[in-house]
Amino acid sequence: MNPCNGGCSKFHRFIARRLGTTSTTILVAFLAVIICLVVLAVHPCRSSSRPGLASTPPSNTRPAMTPVDTPTPAIRLTPTPTLCPPVTLEEPENGSRLEFGATVMLRWSAPYDLLEEEYYQLRIQVKGHDASTNYPTVEDHYHLPILLPGEYIWSVSIVRSVASERYELVSKGSEWRSFQIVPLPPVVHSISPTDMLQGMSALVVMKGENLVYPLTLTIGIPLQVTYVNSSTITATVPTTLEVGEYPVIIMDSNGRGVSSAFFAVKDPSTPMPTASPFVYRPPTLDFGGIICCSVTLRWKWAGTLAENEWFAIRIGKLPDVPHSQTWTKEREYTFALSGAGDYVWEVAICRGDPATAACNQLAVSEQGVFSSGCDPNCQPPSRP
Fold it and tell me: What does DSSP say about strands 258-259 and 177-182: parallel, antiparallel, or unpaired?
């Protein structure tokens, strides 16, 4: 008998015809399948892991962190070396003014002695510049070489030598002091020409000492200076200068200067006196002496040679006449004799060029005569 006849649903009857079972049997089987699925879902054997391997944790979980005791690292501090107190600068005083060429001695003091390999390091700078000149020394003073005019600053510290030309600081640096090297005051001895006519201009040449930049030159009005060398400057007096006599005033940057020269501007309508030609007095011979085959000749002359004027020394061995040996600005000349005999010599004042020996003779001395045995094997006397 088919239990699904009558009240069974169409679904039950369909299953019964296919399986030949009743709906109760189907229900039981269905329940059994559900139970097995539930059991498998909770049974530990559902893991697909291979024996001996741990299950893979869910992807949304983090592995537990095991706290680790990390010791705090020890901080080693490098001690800062303690520098000794600075040295004390003694002289010159701060802001001192020293003349160019004068001795510059820097001195300082320290309350402790230097140890081995320690030095005083003197630093010199031109004020306004970063570059230093360093002078290591073990003395507490230093004699500076000649410095050019300008303003300088200096400081001293104590250092220790750690390698070739390498030093480390031992003391703090001292204060910085300054001193100034000032040039010698300019001096004008002469001016040429000394005058001009009004309405004309003149290039004047001034001779003197310490004529170095910067200078202020005034002849009636301030003039622009051209520097030839430390003993010669030039300037142009303009046409606008009025008739009169003007002092030549020269000053350096410190307001110092010496001049006794004057420049005159003359009225062109005033007749100019005819200047008498200057008469050159001849030099006076003053024989020096002979040592072996060397003779020293001297002479006197009260004048001053111009820039293009020279003494021309002339010597001859008799019976030859004196002929030119050299041109010089000095008043002494040493000459090597050619052998024994009598010699004649004279000194002339020449205007010209030594390179060409073309002499415009202005004056000549009397001739002098001397004799020499001239022994080439002579030994000059030794100095005591």
Answer: unpaired
CA distances (Å), origin 30, targets 36, 122, 315, 346: 10, 110, 157, 159
Domains in the chain: boundaries: 1-39, 88-182, 187-266, 284-372
- What pLDDT, on a 0 to 100 scale, did the predictor assign at position 230? 85
Quickly list DSSP for 47-82: --PPTTSPPPPPTT--PPPPP--PPPPPP-PPPPPP
Is the Cβ–Cβ distance between 124 and 132 less than 8 Å?
yes
Homologous superfamily of domain range 88-182: Immunoglobulins (2.60.40.10)
Indicate the Cα dihedral angle 346, 347, 348, 352, nearest 10°.
Answer: 120
Residues facing residue 152 across a β-bridge: 126, 179
Tell me how far the alpha carbon of residue 126 is from its chain's centroid. 8
| pLDDT winner (highest mean) among 237-246, 248-257, 374-383 | 237-246
pLDDT at 70 over 60: no
